[in-house]
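ok here's DUF2155 domain-containing protein, seq below lol
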Amino acid sequence: MRRPDFGRYVALTRFSRGISPIVRAVRRLPPAAALAATLLAPAAALAQNPGTSVAPAPRSGQGEVIAPTPRIENPVAVFNGLDKITGRITEFDVPIEKTVAFGALKVTPHVCYTRPPTEQPNTTSYVDVDELSLKNEQRRIFSGWMFASSPGLSSVEHPIYDVWLIDCKGGARPEAPQGPTLGE
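and the structure came out like this:
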């Protein structure tokens, strides 16, 4: 007859000293039960405090309307290009609706948007990237939105070159709404 192995239990209890009993209990649950307990814990904590109330989300036609953040349209998109063979990174500017060659790639931005400095940074551009073959044939390898905040989200997949958006230049600042000033 085999003796039960208590080594794992002892290791778990030594590891879990100093951790709250709730966390220890959740660690011992099967993964599905642990997920359910984690998702339901905030609701249970909210229900235990009678003074807390949650306001329902405003429905259409109710509450105040929040205006969208104004975006700034820029005339120039700024890209970085990586040549994977030499390891050299090159920064290049491309005017909107113009095409600039980077190695065997042709980069054409159609729009480039940023947000005002008072808002969270968000630089986006709609870009077409074409590859020029040795036979002088052009093939579209990327068409879509690029985000400067997360270049890996929408990257150009090419065996030799990488291209990603880093910024936009030259946009006019959006005009602030005219309203009464102090003292009027």
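fwiw The longest strand covers residues 105-114. kinda neat tbh
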